């Protein structure tokens, strides 16, 4: 009888152990999308820390093991931006009445501001997270933006020169790479599983200190602060995890991990009147990070999908609802739909309330944007909306920013350096202006146009170096091989042609 009991006990133990192994393998497969995070692979840093060995200290919450596992995979990023001269060019001025007495260039320097400004060499630092054993690192866009040199230092003091693989200001994320192998790296967690009140750890290099670990709890999810919009980018994606873990300058791009040592966010911002930590910090959810990383490595640029809707700010007052004719309802109120956009094609209309994306409830615009941002153009999703008290679910095929289903090709870098959104001038508008075509500068972001000229949104490009420009493709071909160029065009409603000389480094 005793022998049977012993055999039964052994059998149960074996089955339990097998179940744990299978469950862990499925966990890894479910949570890892980037090719560098192979299914079932446990990095050496986790093994060293004894994670997943079921030997966590008993009693009170202890952060020793997750800290030990994560520290080797968080890096210090130092940036250098070379000194340079920036042109303060105004639109080309007509000949001044003083030309017979003074040189027009001197006149412009005093009264038109044409001269040059000198920007000295700049150095800064931030943090990053290794996400593969062959050297891919995720960080914030604002850490590496405009940097001419990147140096990555590991926790073991080894330093490497890094190159930028891709970056996107709308997400404030970037991927860089160092030439190394066999590196420790962080495993992806699942930010959808993050709960308000759970313990989290922030790891990075604040204030030029060595690696620093701070602890806090998740105090909110899907926070939208309007921070990315201040970078002059369209369609910013913000759905932050809010914590009270201490984060300071230099923590940007570092890791937010759970008590299992898994990456659940990239630390990006703090809420502070002084610029130093004073209560709350914000991290980009890892489920967004995974999508952006995959796109940058595979395509060189983020494949951003658009639903094609405009939505009212969250938290409309009763007076605002009444003034705008907003009916009571749950979800995100749709104030308009883009003509020919994905939503309109699926039957969604102005005045609807979107309540779910792929069955996931959304009660704020940040939650809705986060869900849609996980997909690429041509992906099919389901959208649930309320209209007149009736709930409907429809299939939606997402589009890109240009209103097509195509994958966005990687820019050769020249268009990105200009730092603006360009669209081909509408044929009807071209006819109205009496021109064969052109390119509209829809929105000026960070880049050469902003730094070197005083060009304004809405400028219509007609020529580049005296070569006709009729559409965006013409524009790309002409500027692809140019380091110095002059963009010529006009502003609707203004007389005259304006010239903007630009140098692309």
Written account of the structure:
This protein has 505 residues and is an alpha+beta fold. Among the domains are: 31 residues; 109 residues, Trypsin-like serine proteases (Thrombin, subunit H, Beta Barrel); 89 residues, Pdz3 Domain (Roll); 90 residues, Pdz3 Domain. Helix content is 22%, strand content 30%. It has 13 helices and 26 strands. The strands form five sheets. A six-stranded antiparallel β-barrel has the order 1-4-5-8-7-6. It has a six-stranded antiparallel beta barrel with strand order 9-10-11-14-13-12. A hairpin with a 2-residue loop joins strand 19 and strand 20. It is globular and about 75 Å long. It starts with a helix and ends with a strand.
Question: What's the gist of this structure?
Answer:
The chain is of the alpha+beta class and 505 residues long.
List keywords for this structure.
six-stranded antiparallel β-barrel; single chain; disordered N terminus; alpha+beta; Thrombin, subunit H; 505 residues; Pdz3 Domain; 26 strands
Layout of secondary structure:
Elements: H1 2-31, H2 44-49, H3 64-70, E1 74-81, E2 84-87, H4 104-111, E3 116-119, E4 122-130, E5 136-139, H5 141-144, E6 149-153, E7 159-168, E8 173-178, E9 199-204, E10 212-223, E11 240-243, E12 255-257, E13 263-271, E14 280-285, H6 286-299, E15 309-311, H7 318-323, E16 332-337, H8 342-345, E17 353-357, E18 360-361, H9 365-372, E19 380-387, E20 390-397, H10 414-418, E21 420-424, H11 427-433, E22 439-444, H12 448-452, E23 460-464, E24 467-468, H13 472-479, E25 484-490, E26 498-503
Antiparallel strand pairs: 1-4, 1-6, 2-3, 4-5, 5-8, 6-7, 7-8, 9-10, 9-12, 10-11, 11-14, 12-13, 13-14, 15-16, 16-17, 17-18, 17-19, 19-20, 21-22, 22-23, 23-24, 23-25, 25-26
